[in-house]
Design a protein that fits this description.
about 55% helix; alpha+beta; 5 helices; about 200 residues; about 15% strand; Nucleotide Exchange Factor Grpe, Chain A, domain 2; single chain
Length: about 200
């Protein structure tokens, strides 16, 4: 019977402890109402982001367009100028055919039928060869009588000739050739000195 007061005391202490724990909570969490964001600030931010993204897209599209143009030009140049080295080597053959045709005297062609046939065959071969070069963009220059062009002609000497405009090509020493828009081999020419200052347009 002596344990009864002790048990009762323990029960009272536990009840007091529970009341203290329940009533004296050191941290109280109260729900704070969140402030509504400013709609104008949100709109301004979204507008800035939209403008930045639009600028990036436009720059990317411009870069892609430039890349496409560069690629097309490279492909076009490869097609037009891919045979430049080979065509340059073939010019020696064109020169030899031209020399062979020019070496036959016209008077002897009229007398000797065999020589005439040979000369005609050489001329036909030369024309056929030049036409085949032309299929690949290689063309023979015709500078005689036109104004000297340093991009296409190489002046070897000057010829005093006041009857033609100054700077006019009056003599062709070696034929020149172009490939596409470029000079494959400049024509070696003689240029007139004297006469009017400007040559007429070709």
């Amino acid at each position: 019977m002596q344990d009864e007061p002790t048990n009762q005391k323990n029960l009272n202490d536990n009840a007091a402890t529970n009341q203290t724990s329940a009533g004296d909570t050191p941290f109280e969490f109260t729900a704070q109402p969140q402030a509504e964001p400013d709609p104008f600030a949100v709109l301004e931010k979204l507008t800035a982001e939209n403008a930045e993204l639009k600028d990036r897209v436009l720059r990317t599209l411009a870069e892609m367009e430039n890349l496409r143009r560069r690629t097309e030009k490279e492909v076009s140049d490869a097609r037009a100028y891919g045979v430049t080295r080979f065509a340059g080597d073939m010019l020696a053959l064109a020169d030899n055919l031209s020399r062979a045709v020019g070496s036959v005297p016209p008077d002897e062609k009229a007398v000797d039928g065999t020589l005439k046939t040979l000369a005609e065959g050489l001329e036909l071969t030369e024309r056929d060869f030049l036409s085949r070069l032309a299929r690949h963009g290689v063309k023979k220059l015709e500078p005689k009588g036109v104004k000297f062009d340093p991009n296409m002609h190489e002046a070897l000497f000057e010829v005093p000739d006041p009857s033609v405009p100054n700077g006019t090509v009056v003599q062709v020493v070696e034929d020149g050739y172009s490939i596409g828009e470029r000079c494959l081999r400049p024509a070696k020419v003689g240029v007139a000195r004297g006469g009017p200052k400007e040559a007429p347009q070709a």
